[in-house]
Amino acid sequence: MPTVSHTVNRSIATPQANPTLRERTRRAVQAELLEAAERLILSQGYEATNVDQVATEAGISRRSFFRYFSSKEDLVLGRYERIGEQWIEALTSRPLDEPLWTSMRRVMDVIIESFSDEEQARRLAAMRHVVNSSPSLRAGQLERFDRVQDALADLARIRAESAGLPWASNDPAPRAIVGAAFACFMAAHAVAADRGDLLADAVDRAMAVVSVRS
Fold it and tell me: Cα–Cα distance between 128 and 7 in angstroms, integer?
């Protein structure tokens, strides 16, 4: 399979092919802080949870907390930053000659796999309710999703160029395909949550009804 070197000019971090020990440590600490925050938020509420409590729960100092996140809101939204990085990693790993629509379906597996564990799925659903109940968190989530869609569209253009099938710089196709895949996922997620369907099946059904030239 051909390889492609890429630099995506977006605020969503471009994942490193071989993360350094420092980067792996950073991600591990961020994950611990997020888990600590979610435990506190789900037990006592978002407004009642503060940075000091999260730092204590995670076993680090307040000063150390701010090395990883700028605020409580930034921490909660950090999950979506990491999901964005994982989506980029997933698209990077797909064959260059694979249709983008097919690749985007496989990219969605990053989230689908998170719902395969029943306990984790319940926690994610509860945190989704927390985010949707806060205008600032909801706005931050949508902003991050928009940025990662732009980053994925940029990456799609770079991969197409490497495969010898470049999109023109003014061609809306990459952004449209990525956006349509996201819309299908969000619609499938809502239906699966309401009806108790398997998320993977709901995503497959949603994406199957959209005909996309990629």
Answer: 31
**CATH of region 73-208:** 1.10.357.10
**Could you read off the pLDDT of 137-173 as tens digits, one per residue?**
999 999 999 999 999 999 999 999 998 888 888 899 9
Distance CA 110, CA 98 (A): 18
CA atoms within 13 A on the CB side of 106: 14
- The pair of structure tokens assigned to 4 is 């492609």
Angle among Cα 54, 24, 37 to the nearest 5 degrees reads: 15
Query: What mean pLDDT comes out for the span 77-81?
Result: 90
Going from N- to C-terminal start, the domains of the chain cover: 19-69, 73-208
First to last CA, the chain: 19
Q: Class for domain 19-69, per CATH?
A: mainly alpha
User: What amino acid is encoded at 118 in this protein?
Assistant: E
Torsion of CA 136, 137, 139, 144, to 10 degrees: 140
Eight-class DSSP state of 210: -
Q: How far, in Å, CA of 15 to CA of 177, rounded? A: 22
Query: Given the structure tokens 């961020």, which residue do they identify?
Result: 30
- In a 13 Å sphere around the CA of 59, the CA atoms on its Cβ side amount to 4
Amino acid at 48: A
The tens digit of pLDDT for each residue in 6-55 reads 444 444 545 555 678 888 898 899 999 999 999 999 999 999 999 999 99
Using only C-alpha atoms, the chain has a radius of gyration, in whole angstroms, of 18
Residue 48 CB coordination number (10 Å): 10
